[in-house]
Protein 1
Amino acid sequence: MNRYPLWKYVVIAVALLLGAIYTLPNFFGEAPAVQVSAAKSTVKIEPALMDRVGGLLKEAGIAHQGLFYDQLGANNFTVRVRLADPDTQLRAKDVIQKALVPDANDPGYVVALNLVPRTPQWLLSLHAAPMYLGLDLRGGVHFLM
């Protein structure tokens, strides 16, 4: 009968445990969101915009699941609003776009539909992030032959 030292079993158990922890974010899925970014380099996204977006949604009676002020790059910030479902996402986008982009020919902000992960904060603090699938794996690319 083959017998292995205890340390080998411990190494395998630790590797399996770490692998399980870092695959957990993939099981939480994604939530519909609206993202507000700067359309011009002269427009700065500041935390006050997050309060303004929250106020716009409150006035319209649209409930959200969270407002986030994120840094995408060195001087590139964005405001994201997590919503419950795609219908609410479309309504929120319309409300925010009407208020922030009065002139469609000269927009100061880009209001876009997005998806944000539902990963809990404790997993994010461990730098565990979901694996993002490309269009081909999501079924977004169709070829006609």
Note: DSSP finds six helices and four strands in the chain.
Protein 2
Amino acid sequence: MRITESNFYSETSHSLLFTCFDSKKQRKTDSFRVHHHAELELGYICSGEGDYILADSRFRAKTGDLFLVRANEQHCVPTVYTDELVSFNIHFSSYFLWNICVEYIPLGVLRVLVCNSPVKHCFCGMGGEILEIKELCENAESNRFEIKLKMVELMCKIARKIGAEQDGGAIYDFTEFKHIDDIQNAIAYINTHLTEKIKLGDIAKNSRMSSSHLSSVFKKHTGVTPYEYLLLQRVDRAAAMLRRTDISVLSLAGECGFGSLANFNKIFKKVTGMTPSEYRKSKQENNQGSGLQ
């Protein structure tokens, strides 16, 4: 059974926690479509074999491999050696990481998971946990509570693996984490006003910080700047509409907060590796799952 996009929310704040989806790629050679997004991603290879590019590294991906992609990290699958490569993907929101996982994962390790510092990208021997979550997602509505528990357990296990590779004597400045609630307010404000003209000053005022301070701590907690987050979320919204509707690209640009069609095309291609029209055609031809894969 294929997993279409399934979104999981917090019952208390109604904030997005994570999104699960399948992705299928057909046999290809050196077809580069590098893309990035605002969320932390886990990509598990269910079947097939190919190359996986993450940042400056290239991996030979095979069944059972699990890849960690951090916010704003360029990645793609340029080559598929088998007839098909099937992956199960999970996008984690910053809310899930900093409001849920923070209770169970050391802050220093959580910071490494999110931000740009050396970290292992590929993990083996975790197929059991991933496949269990995938199976639960096939009936997501009935299994939502158990899926959320399994997700926390999965992130804790990955954190332990990463933590074991870090310097056990490292000292972290925990005062940096006092703005977690303010950052979540900033994210909520951006998501609520995604299609409107938003200024950094408006976001900062809502978050009770100066613009410069907001930019600094926002990137420390999410891996991207407020403006990068805004653009990536707009592109993600546009990609979903391209997959699910027949709305014209011109109308879609306006509905997703882009000032002009030219600007929309430029930013969308920079993020996804395709123009909006190419992206829609690709999804229709391949009948792939969700996500900017």
Note: The first strand starts at residue 6 and ends at 9.
Protein 3
Amino acid sequence: MKRKMKPIAPCSLVISTYNWPQALDLCLQSVTRQTLMPAEIIIADDGSSSETEQLLNYYRETYALNLIHIWQPDEGFRLARIRNKALAAATFDYIIQADGDLILHPLFIADHLRLRKKGHFITGSRVMLSEFTTSRLFRHRSIDIRKYGSDNSNLLNSLRSPLLSSVLADHYKQSGRNRFYVKGCNMAFWKEDLLAINGYNEAFTEWGAEDSELAVRLIHHGIRKRFLKFGGIVFHLHHRLACRSGEKRNFEMMAETIRQKHIRIHAGIDQHLENIPV
């Protein structure tokens, strides 16, 4: 029996991952249930083992997904670099970014595309799933949060209202300490804007602030932030916190970008544009 074809949107979905195929499996399940499918799905893989490649082959064969696997050797935390490689490989003008430890709401892609606007980038929020809910989802290999989730936080972020999301897009978390607030796991950009600022700063080699520093430079370049509230919903699978040893240095680099009003950085996406896989 053939699967019913879903409408396909001319956009790229970039999903970052590192050695957690169990989580990526649930993430890709949620991708297959999108009401509007991205034309390509690029896996930005920061050095996972062959188990991840086997999982991707399963989804290619079972769901006929246009999955592109961008991999680099495991040489420590190099999220900025692998994201740049994936963004360079994107063939569509509009790019939606997520992480491989998320379950995407079925209207995640549709919500992002509904609010896209030239001269703007989008960031959204997330629902934090508890350890108990996450373990049950893994046990049943399920993304049915209504059935297996009961004690999660940030539940306001799980509410969806197209009207409210449109009203709040240009007003929510736009000033003061929230001016540069973003969540790298839930963002979207025009590729031309990323190229103009040279993408992520690959000087960020430990966890923290690489997404906010990117947002700072986009805003310095005149690209305005839209906040996707009450839409573009994602559910974050529970895991231990990443090592914060480099957080102070990263925030100092971001503060310098703010002070100096930097727009374009040296070590960025341009060094990967000639190495795009055919």
Note: Strands lie at 8-17, 37-45, 67-71, 94-99, 102-104, 120-124, 127-128, 186-190, 224-228, 234-236.
